[in-house]
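tool=predict chain=A
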Amino acid sequence: MDAPEPGDDLAAGRRIAASLLANVSSLAEDMHSYIVERIPEVGGDAELRGLTLGSCSSNLEAVLSMFRHGIDVAAAEAPVTALEHARAMAARGHSVDAMLRFYRLGHAYFTEKLSDLLTDRIDDPAIALRTFIDLERFGFQYIDRISGLVAAEYVAELDRRQNQARAERDDVVRALLAGERVDVARAERVLSHRLTGRQIGFVCWVDDRGVDLEGFARQIGRYLGAGHSLVVADGPLAVWGWVSITGDERNSLTGMATELSAERENVHIAVGSPHSGTAGFRTSHLEALRTRRVIELSGRAAPSITEFSDVALVEAISRDLDAARAFVAAQLGDLARDDAKERDERATLLAVLDAQGSLTTAARTLGIHKNTVLQRVRRAEERRGRPATINVAELHAALLVCDVLGASVLRESSPH
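tool=predict ok
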């Protein structure tokens, strides 16, 4: 028996390709059934089934025609139905891996079909094997190229949809924060966030990049008692967040501060108070922003978790910072200096006022001796120029402002 000529392999392969092309519709339907059987979630989606069949048909016709006519696989372009199939998968929320599984299964079907066909139609095992290798190699290269093209289209469609959803969401958030009237049902659908409950707004921000702020904000939401958080980016270094809670109570942030201390790196968190409905969405957010302003005025470098209720008085007094400085100076006199001794005396006097005048309670709070408390209070009164019993409410407020804002409202250190 004569050895087969090298051209016999190519000619045999092209004959096989032509034979398959003649029956491409039946082949595509068979491939479609093979894929749908192995991806059952497609079965209930008539549009996706139709696109899958169209993609099978157009891809089979393209790869077989290219091989038959000797067209380089680099010239292959993804068929229109294949691109539309990729867009449909993105629209339905299927992963890119799920979308590419169609192509892996299609290639598996093609390989099985080719193996059976060559065994039946080519007598010479050597030619059959080489023909199979040529067709299989070409088929793999084709699928590899088309997979990349449809994956790119999938990602592009996903980006388009996400950008559209983000723009629509941002528009609704802007309207709510502007106090405009909105269709609550539509707003809740767009935001995937309930607006009829009590709203808590919060802000997270960092000084440097490298922190997953959105993921971190969702953790905050869970601590506040909500399974879902609405999170909106405010530039690269900050996010705004909202949760909706039921009832009058919400989880305390005390435990959160402890548990997240190792995780939050340099993240600052400002949290508004709970308020109801769409108006509450805006009000709580504004409180969180005001809390952030107070934290930034204080110059705190360490991570912080601050609630608006803890700084509401300080925030109100410090809206006009010059007026706040004048108020502090008027109430504290020389006690309003940014020195270590004055700082200790202010802290002690504040602890005494918080304890409603109890030196013992203040000493326990500060971890110092009762006599030390008494000495510091006397020195503080001397620097102030009048007893602590005069204008107690104003004194307490001034001490709170100094405790929170520090150097922002204090006079410079005295010369030594």
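Confidence is low (pLDDT under 50) at residues 1-6. The first helix runs from residue 6 to 22.
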